[in-house]
Amino acid sequence: MTYIAPPCDRGVVEGTARQGGKAKGALVLAGTVLGSSLAFIDGSAVNLTLPVIQQQLGGDAASAQWIMNAYLLFLGALVLAGGAAADRYGRRSVFVVGVVVFSCASALCGLAPSLPLLIAARAVQGVGAAMLVPASLAILGASFDKEARARAVGIWAGAGGLMSAAGPVLGGWLTDEVSWRAVFLINLPLAALAVVFILAGARDSRAPQAGRIDWAGALSVTAGLAAITWSLTEAPARGFAAAPVIAGLLLGVGALAAFISIERRVESPMIPLTLFHSGTFSGANALTFLLYAAFGGALFLLPFQLIGVHGYSAARAGAALLPLSIGLAVLSPMAGAVSARVGVRLMLTVGPLLVAAGFALLAFRSGEADYWRGVFPGLALLALGMGVAVAPLTDAVLGAVPKAYEGAASGINNATARIGGLAAVALAGFVLATGGEGGASGIAEGYPGAMKIAAMAAAAAGLIGALTIRSAPGKA
User: Fold this and answer.
1) Which of 3, 203, 331, 412 has the fewest beta carbons under 10 Å from its own?
2) How far from chain centre, in Å, is Cα 365?
3) Residues 280, 400: contact at Cβ < 8 Å?
4) In this structure, are residues 427 and 232 in contact, taking their beta carbons and an 8 Å threshold?
């Protein structure tokens, strides 16, 4: 979906595990970095393969969307349940199971002879990622004391940023020089090393206070998101007035309503609804949804524009996105220091507005094939805006809730970012549908409008930041 990790990863580490313990730190750190890199690389590299997969396996615009959304759906819906499972059944155990599931699904993706099998394997990848991502963060928290944990999280975050930056370049190069299948198969050696390192270095740890896993909530939210995603994906071809589309939307809304009802009654809810009594927390999540929806949807479309309209190779398209990841990696730590002085409200107003300006620039320069004149200026503004916003967003979320709920709050915000991207990719079908069956040949017609919509969503996120976020983090 995106070329950056969702917000609040640091908060997940700090909020879910404070047990400490003596582990073989280097092995633990290497294992968690490699495990998380599976999701980071997958999230940033697969976008570059989509136009090529369409050419080789066929399929319409909806097929390209489902290659992404099958993964995002299960990751976004189940990541909170995955974190709860890690706390209850053992962080190391859940991590290893997640890596094994993810790697087996990656092998199926790499060998898939048809689009339906590829999409099914991508869904299984999402299930594996929903286990390994929160478990890797929790292992870090459980394996280091407070001082060492901060250093470990810094290394983990830096390595994740590096992997996210390398993903598009690696994915494009593998697609051009080997095959799009290699983008999935490269996960296998990384997964094997991750399992070896974690089994050798980490002890299994649990949270003594962990309650039962909210399986009813997980099932209802997955069903609701799946139904709505299917309807939004099918709407460009069938029309919003089509009976199946309307039925899917109604089913999705009903399932999400049931999810809220379950969360009010269950003993250990996935989402403690009382957290939304905080205006800052609610505002931060609304901002997150809009910002990451704009970002994820636009960057889903950008490879189609570069490859299908401007004739970039997959490798060149991947390299074109490298300044975005590098800029984010450089700017995010600086933004955290600045927000401590000026307050998070200003950062969460200015950052999204810069992102909006970046999308607007991409829209107005969409007909320019030259990278430095047509693409780079907009991406530079995106990097600046997201770099300004991401670290303060984490601070705002953690500062809006009592300390005992930091882990839950971080997980909710992290999942919100993923679900925002899921919704945006589903809606991207209205742009891809303009290109006919291949989805790329006519994208030039809809791409500028999509960038303008992304600009409006990012601007709305900035307005929400100005109206709802406190000037500085504080307990709500």
Assistant:
1) 203
2) 27
3) yes
4) yes
Token pair 């190069």: residue:
173
- In the chain, where are the structural domains located? 9-214+266-468, 215-265
User: 376-399 and 406-427 are packed helices; what angle lies between their axes, rounded to 10 degrees?
Assistant: 150
Q: Who contacts 286 (Cβ-Cβ below 8 Å, separation ≥6)?
A: 461, 464, 468
Tens of pLDDT, residues 35-66? 888 877 776 778 788 888 888 887 777 787 88
Asked if residues 204 and 92 have their Cβ atoms less than 8 Å apart, the reply is yes
Rounded distance, CA 414 to CA 378, Å?
A: 26
pTM for this entry: 0.84
Q: String of b and e for 223-247 (b: at least 16 CB within 10 Å)?
A: bbbbbbbbbbbbbbeeeeeeeebee
Tokens of 119: 């999409």
Contact between 300 and 321 under an 8 Å Cβ cutoff? The reply is no
CATH fold group of domain 9-214+266-468: Growth Hormone; Chain: A; (1.20.1250)
The residue behind tokens 């957290």 is 275
Query: CB count, 10 Å around CB of 183?
Result: 28
- Any long-range contacts for 333-342 (C-beta under 8 Å, 24+ apart)? 333/391, 334/387, 335/387, 335/388, 335/389, 335/390, 335/391, 335/392, 336/391, 336/392, 336/395, 339/391, 339/392, 339/395
> What is the C-alpha to C-alpha distance for residues 297 and 300, in angstroms, rounded to an integer?
5
Q: Is the CB of residue 29 less than 8 Å from the CB of residue 155? A: yes
SS3 category, 141: helix
pLDDT tens digit sequence for 3-23: 566 666 655 554 444 444 444
Q: Is there a contact between 252 and 224 (Cβ–Cβ < 8 Å)?
A: yes
Question: Which backbone phi and psi does 422 adopt, to 5 degrees?
Answer: -60, -50
Rounded to 10°, the helix 187-201/91-111 angle is: 170
Torsion angles phi and psi, residue 267, rounded to 5: -65, -45
